[in-house]
Amino acid sequence: MTIYVVRHGQTDINLEGKAQGRGGLPLNKNGITQAKELNKTFKEENISFDYVYSSPQERAIQTAKLCSGKEDIIIDERLNVYDLGSADGLPLSEIKITGTVPDMTVYSGVEELSHYKSRIHSFIKELIEKYRDTNYNILIVGHKDSSGMLDAYFRNIPIETIYDDYLKLSASNCEYKKYII
């Protein structure tokens, strides 16, 4: 099996340099163009997908449909964006960060990194177990944080504390990474 991991296309919140979590926006015009261009790339490389998984966020679902050319998208809550709590929507330059996450002593509702890692790892382990012995192409569309956490998983890079910078492994908007299992 081959897994393709894509970060959603651009939104106005990305463009404005703000933190985009669960209160995010749909794709902007550029994000739609990015997803359509990725679809062309996949076609040029003769890549089609047997299954397409997405975060429940609208921007990820839009990207999944546009870049895969499929309407039948499997939504998995475990792929939801990292919960930024009350830091969601704030300018990135103004957010107090501890390690890789908004400071939990300043912002309420910020997701524990261990919980986030657990749900992403649960998803990918289940997916690999289910399709390991196939030649399927699987597309996963998510977010900056999920693309980084999945890349760390596939590279066997341990992410144990908020100081382990998995975000440096993240994809840009509509960038894809390929993993052959």
Describe this structure in words.
With 181 residues, the protein is an alpha/beta fold. The protein has a single domain (2-180), classed as 3-Layer(aba) Sandwich (Rossmann fold). The protein is built from 5 helices and 7 strands. It has helices spanning 12-15, 29-44, 58-68, 113-131, 144-154; strands at 2-7, 51-54, 74-75, 97-98, 101-102, 137-142, 176-180. The longest helix has 19 residues, at 113-131. It is globular and about 45 Å long. The model has no long low-confidence stretch (mean pLDDT 97).
Number of spatially distinct domains: 1
Q: H/E element string?
A: EHHEHEEEHEHE
Class based on secondary structure composition and strand pairing? alpha/beta
Multimer state: single chain
List unreliable stretches of 5+ residues.
none
The fraction of residues in strands falls at 5-15%
Q: What is the second-level CATH architecture?
A: 3-Layer(aba) Sandwich
Whole-number mean pLDDT = 97
